[in-house]
Amino acid sequence: MSKNEVTVIDREGSAQTIAWEPEQTLMEALRDNDLPVLASCGGTASCATCHVFVEKEVFDSLGERSEDELELLVEAEGYRECGSRLSCQIGFDSGLSGVTVTLAPED
Amino acid sequence: MVEPGITEPVVIVGAGHAGVAVAAALRTRGWNGRILLIEAEKEIPYERPPLSKDLLKPGAPEQASPLRTEKFYVDKGIERLAGLSVDSIDREGRAILLADGSRQGYYRLVIATGSRARPLSVPGAQLPGVLALRTHDDAVELKRSLMPGTRVAIIGAGYIGLEVAAAAAKIGCDTTVLEFQDRVMSRVTSAPVSRFFERLHQGNGVRFVFGAAVTAVEGSGRVERLLTADGSSYRADVVIAGIGVLPAQDLAEAAGLECRDGILVDDACRTSDPLIYAAGDVTRFTGSFDGTSQRLECIQNALAQAERVAEDITGSPARSPEVPWFWTVQHGVRLQTAGVRHPEDEVIVRGTPAEGKFSVVYLRDGRLAAVDTIAGLADFRPAKKIIASGAQIDPAAAADPAIPLADAVRAPIPVR
Ligand SMILES: Cc1cc2nc3c(=O)[nH]c(=O)nc-3n(C[C@H](O)[C@H](O)[C@H](O)COP(=O)(O)OP(=O)(O)OC[C@H]3O[C@@H](n4cnc5c(N)ncnc54)[C@H](O)[C@@H]3O)c2cc1C
Ligand code: FES
């Protein structure tokens, strides 16, 4: 069985590959693999501590950002119009296996 | 990370938001000694906010939302004891005593016992149909008793009472909220925000009775009506008491730890015993930003204190303190607050409440002390940063929603 994995570039710039379990949001996968994602709202698009950058193709393949998500992101450190996402709003998708995400800087 | 000679585990009492986060944060910080998480409830540790929100939606599943997967605890080597409560602490012996009579030594002890719903203390409060909402079992019982047409009386217009009112109204219950004060959420927000949420609820069929002092619950075999001090009577099939919480400090008190409406902790979450920490709803501490003694009942505080405990146990450097924040969702409208408002703060409304989306900023000595954002988060993060910086704000600019809040800052942000 092939495993679902994502490559994560942390805030120091080093890359690591982590497992992404079905039924987890991307935030949960990051957090449970000890990446420094505080997720202080438990994944309800309230805190933006789970902010990541995704590649353009991935960004385009994901759905629209909700108004709450967008308003939080616009004010977040390093916001990218076509790249910033709250990882708690990215549900598991085996089609995303193998992608690379980058942790956004902390405020 | 573990010093040679440490054999006893870090024992965490209570696997709520704070307890689970302490365990996780210890591992993130490289702690490789034993961690034992003890919880009175049988279920896998779960999230509380959805209990009064998503779980009560018509057709929503009754299952709780786990904080972490079962696999997480196994992978991280976090030992769990569930369905067993801690009865007492033997500080001299550095051990706790469990309800099954067993004894467990600790290297460090973390008390994360949270809070419990303040019980209604009027005659008849024990009648079936009088409920409170704290646990998943409470939420399931409540959900099952809310049917279209059910007469629901909610005592207390705090955020939990109001979230329940919104859910009940959505189901089609005949919903009345009785509140002693003259407005909703009076403890946590200002009048303009209260008025906005009152109108929102009324527009969705919720009735309010302000200045209501409930004196008794009556019924034969089950609740049938509520009585108030002015002699009024309100028919009810279900009563929900949302009258605040009490810190679950009994363990700490019995062990002689300093408590005063909460276990007293210092800025590293240490209790009066240096080997014992406390985190979450159960603590009382001095706020980093306003310097007042406080107890905060919110996820943010539970998680931030958990991080602090893990930092201190592992000797990791402390992160700078986070401005406390909180959210509630009623009838699909989110109120999100940063900072701690004081009743005497200057209140400045940004935007037009009648348009359904606005913010309220609170100034203390000219500095931004807190913000409420309603149905929009644009001001939330900027406000958090400004509060943390202690910057002075120009009230006229802050009152103009066309001016970004960051541009209302007067002096250059001083370095903390
Ligand atoms: C319905 C509801 C909705 C909420 N909504 C929000 C929200 O939207 N946003 C927000 O920020 N906050 C919200 N809160 C508040 C938030 O849930 C609390 O601040 C948070 O749960 C505090 O975490 P804690 O770990 O301190 O306590 P808890 O989560 O209460 O955990 C304490 C645990 O300790 C256990 N325990 C107690 N005594 C013992 C003992 N002697 N032995 C063993 N175990 C013991 C208890 O069973 C409990 O599981 C809500 C609370 C409720 C009840
Ligand atoms: S976890 Fe808070 S916004 Fe994603």
The gist of it:
The complex is a heterodimer of chains A (107) and B (416). Chain A is of the alpha+beta class and 107 residues long.
Q: Could you say what the CATH topology of chain A is called? A: Ubiquitin-like (UB roll)
The hetero molecules present are: flavin-adenine dinucleotide, FE2/S2 (inorganic) cluster
Radius of gyration of chain B using CA atoms only = 23 Å
Q: What oligomeric state do these chains adopt?
A: heterodimer
Helix content of chain B: 10-25%
CATH topology assignment of the largest domain in chain B: FAD/NAD(P)-binding domain
Q: Give the total of beta strands of chain B.
A: 26
- What percent strand of chain A? 15-25%
The largest pleated sheet of chain A is described as: 5 strands, mixed
Order of helices and strands of chain A: EEHEHHEE
Highlighted features:
heterodimer, A: 107 residues, Ubiquitin-like (UB roll), five-stranded mixed sheet, B: alpha/beta, FAD/NAD(P)-binding domain, Enolase-like, domain 1, 3 domains, five-stranded parallel sheet, binds flavin-adenine dinucleotide
What does this structure look like?
- The complex is a heterodimer of chains A (107) and B (416).
- By secondary structure, chain A is an alpha+beta fold.
- Chain A has a single domain, classed as Beta-grasp domain (Ubiquitin-like (UB roll)), CATH 3.10.20.30.
- In chain A, 20% of the residues lie in helices and 20% in strands.
- Chain A has three helices and five strands; from the N terminus they run E-E-H-E-H-H-E-E.
- Chain A has helices at residues 26-32, 56-61, 67-74; strands at 5-9, 15-19, 51-54, 84-86, 100-103.
- The relative contact order of chain A is 0.28.
- Chain B has 416 residues and is of the alpha/beta class.
- Chain B has three domains: 10-116 and 246-314, FAD/NAD(P)-binding domain; 119-243, FAD/NAD(P)-binding domain, CATH 3.50.50.60; 341-412, FAD/NAD-linked reductase, C-terminal dimerisation domain (Enolase-like, domain 1, 2-Layer Sandwich), CATH 3.30.390.30.
- In chain B, helix 1 (17-28) packs parallel to helix 7 (299-314).
- The complex binds flavin-adenine dinucleotide (FAD) and FE2/S2 (inorganic) cluster (FES).
- FE2/S2 (inorganic) cluster binds at residues 27, 39, 41, 43, 45-50, 86, 88 of chain A.
